[in-house]
Amino acid sequence: MTDTNSTTNTTSTSSTTTPTALVTGATRGIGRETAARLAALGWTVWVGARDSEAGEKTAAEIAAEHPSADVRSVLLDVTDDGSVAAAADTVRAAGTGLDALVNNAGVAGRLVAPEETTAADFVQVYGTNVLGPVRVTNAFLPLLRDSAAPRLVMVSSGVGSFAVTTDPDRVESTLVGLPYPSSKAALNMITTMYAKALPGVRVSAVDPGYTATDLNGHSGPQSVAEGAEAIVTACSAETVPGPFFDRHGVLPLVTRPLRPRPTGRGPGGRGPGGTARSFKPAHQSRRPKL
After folding, report:
1. Distances (CA, A) of 194 to 68, 116, 152, 159, 237
2. Is 289 tagged catalytic?
3. pLDDT tens string 38-48
4. Per the residue annotation, which of 180, 196, 210, 280 is the catalytic one?
5. Residue 50, H or E segment
6. For all residues of the chain together, what is the average pLDDT?
7. Active-site position among 184, 194, 210, 280
8. Which of 16, 43, 98, 286 has the fewest CB neighbours in a 10 Å radius?
9. In the structure, what pLDDT confidence band is assigned to residue 173 with cuts at 50, 70 and 90?
10. Known catalytic residue at 184
11. What are the chain's domains?
């Protein structure tokens, strides 16, 4: 095992014909599972970690689980410009190329009621969950564009969807908070803008689902294997269900249709005698509840 610029290469050779992925926040939870699943598929995998020791340990563990895999660690703190730039230089110098960039690193922040939330509560959450993916994508996009089949994957959440969080049949509608849900809503918009701006790159936002991880005190009913499914699909599948999806299928970002059908000719779309026009939005999801 070698250590160069806090980077560990668990194999002695690499091949540019093998697809390569970099996963941020890959030392535990869904990030680690994603890295392991891609390694099992024969990918070269970069384990992005803000702690070099944890990154090296995780890379070695995954390599031991999949002896034929090329698993490497790279020091990468998504909140630090210098760290991200150095990580991009390391991957470029290694010559592995980059086919899938998985922006997985995220934090939940302080869990308090909206009326008790302060502006300071947003700083770390937005710095990691919103600015982090932008910082990492900006640094690695030149490498990604060199791929024959580039995939940019944003690990989002159902709590970032207006449609999902207002659907009473969804567990996300019961979760009330400001920083984390709004950070994922922002990430979803960022994803749609990247998709418009990068026609040569397949850009996806994925919802792992309510998964038992350190982020939620292991309260989620899903396993990390289930949580990683949509991410692995976004990286490796020939086609994906849509721009925002989970392991069950496509997810809506907003409630549609937004325009109601007027019931009469009254002012402002009201019916005769001022009867309010009716709204009948399409139901957002027929998937099983979490």
Report:
1. 34, 34, 9, 20, 20
2. no
3. 999 999 999 99
4. 180
5. none
6. 83
7. 184
8. 286
9. confident
10. yes
11. 2-254 (3.40.50.720), 260-290 (no CATH)
